[in-house]
Amino acid sequence: HPPFDVHAVRKDFPILAERVNGYPLAWLDNAATTQKPQCVIDRISEFYRHENSNIHRAAHELAARATDAYEGARDTVARFINASSADDIVFVRGSTEAINLVAQSWGRQFIGQGDEIVISWLEHHANIVPWQQLCQETGAVLRVIPVDDDGQVILAEYQKLLNAKTKLVSFTQVSNALGTVTPAAEMIELAHRAGAKVLLDGAQSVSHLRVDVQSLDCDWFVFSGHKIFGPTGIGVLYGKPELLAATQPWQGGGNMIEDVTFEKTVYQPAPAKFEAGTGNIADAVGLGAALDYLSRIGIENVARYEHELLEYGMHALRMIPGLRLIGTAPDKTSVLSFVLAGHSTQDVGKALNEAGIAVRSGHHCAQPILRRFGLEATVRPSLAFYNTYEEIDRLAAVVKRLQCSKTHFSG
Ligand code: PMP
Fold first, then answer.
1. Which of 84, 151, 226, 290 suits 403 as a labelling partner, its CA being 20 to 30 A distant?
2. What percentage of the chain reaches a pLDDT higher than 90?
3. Is the pTM of this model over 0.90?
4. 392: buried, middle or exposed (CB in 10 Å: 19+, 13-18, 0-12)?
């Protein structure tokens, strides 16, 4: 790959030229959603200009174009995460829908009274609530892997939770609140040794590190298009072929059937079996364009640059008196969660916004992990490969100024 040039890639993202409150926009809210390169915007527009049709059903030219584009995007996704086949890839609305799909189809079918589901303390609400709902319906029990003070899962405690009753382990590869990278391959192997299946939440990982679902050996992998420079409303459920084959569909309707009579319906094989109704065709095509774009830049280049930027940011924030970094695991990516003594997280967010810097302040849909650190909210700058050292400097300067003014007044 050519050396990584942040100023060149920034030109690919028209929105990065916006000004906010008189300042150049610094988009540091990438864990919430990422910005879209021109090629993705163009690809969606091209679809509606030249290819738009429903897929599969009609024998006309535009149906063929739309079908080719949609199935081509599925191939791209399969290659991107190294699935064994495009048939392992189900298009859904996002990570949330993918997890609910597994809970409501495989879960209802294979989880029963007294079975155990293990999640981690780091999980986003999307990887907590669907399992709680399933437990309520089935009488299964939810168990939670604790984390240490740096925000990493405690492997010894995890091992103690695994037993013959464990049917499923569902955890995140990267924490959206702290940035912790969990030891996924090791955790998956331990779960399999206990006879459990594993769902890996890749919402925060696929855009930052190389994911290979076959070498990880996860049973399901989920991610959202909008967090990887693609559109909203499109996401991916990867499943091992034998699992997708053994699982009953979740929703019924058009597209997912082979044959329907009033007595009986024969379903299509996966992935069509899980894609009832007209899906988000244009945005699936847009996601394919986003993954092709990222592949051209090279995920290893992205990971290397982001790692340097994260180290720089951690160092800059650590220098600020009264600032407490939340999430200090050695293995982490992209997220710089913190609280500032004497200032609410809203106030910090507001001061940053006034300086054109977009961060999220709040609970980040991960209340249990923040409460683990005695907090209800943090300020959360989160990085992508188009962020710069200069943006980190601006962030640190605003926070430092806020802190100094407070110290000045109260002192
Ligand atoms: N899991 C994690 C780790 C996330 O960060 C998010 C989004 N913040 C989700 C799941 C849910 O993703 P979506 O809202 O796109 O369905």
1. 151
2. 95
3. yes
4. buried
How far apart, in whole angstroms, are the C-alpha atoms of residue 118 and residue 97? Answer: 19
pLDDT at residue number 59: 83
Residue 410 has pLDDT above 50, yes or no: no
Distance of CA 268 to the CA centre of its chain: 28
Type of residue found at 311 = E
230 lines ligand 1 (CB under 6 A): no
**332 φ/ψ angles, rounded to the nearest 5 degrees:** -145, 165
Amino acid at 211: V
What pLDDT digit, counting tens, does each position of 108-156 carry? 999 999 999 999 999 999 999 999 999 999 999 999 999 999 999 999 9
Q: Is 365 a catalytic residue?
A: yes
Dihedral pair phi/psi, residue 382, rounded to 5°? -140, 140
Q: For the segment 312-356, what is each residue's pLDDT rounded down to a tens digit?
A: 999 999 999 999 999 999 999 999 999 999 999 999 999 999 999
Residues 197 and 315 in one domain: no
Instruction: Return the beta strands (E) in 161-291 as ranges.
Output: 166-172, 197-201, 220-224, 235-239, 257-260, 265-267
Place of tokens 């994911």: 211
Task: Report whether residue 34 contacts ligand 1, using a CB cutoff of 6 Å.
Answer: no
User: What dihedral angle (degrees, nearest 10) is formed by the CA atoms of 140, 157, 81, 215?
Assistant: -110
Same domain, 25 and 53: no
- Give domain status of residue 36, yes or no: no
- Looking at residue 58, its pLDDT comes to 73
- Structurally, the chain folds into a number of domains equal to 2
Last residue of a domain, one of 245, 265, 296: 296
| Residue 87 DSSP SS3 | helix
Residues 260 and 311 in one domain: no
The whole-number pLDDT of residue 407 equals 52
Question: CA–CA separation, 249 vs 268, rounded Å?
Answer: 10
Q: Kindly indicate whether the ipTM for this predicted assembly is greater than 0.95, answering yes or no.
A: yes
| Ligand 1 atom nearest to 95, measured from its CA | 16
Two tokens at 81?
């995460």
Kindly give the distance from the C-alpha atom of residue 201 to the centroid of ligand 1, in angstroms, as a whole number: 8
The CA distance from 411 to 392, in Å, is 28
User: Which structure tokens are listed for 278?
Assistant: 């007209």
Note whether residue 1 is domain-resident.
no
pLDDT for residue 3: 72
Q: Catalytic: which of 135, 218, 365, 404?
A: 365
Residue with tokens 């150049």: 24
pLDDT in tens, 12-23: 999 999 999 999
333 close to 177: Cβ distance less than 8 angstroms = no
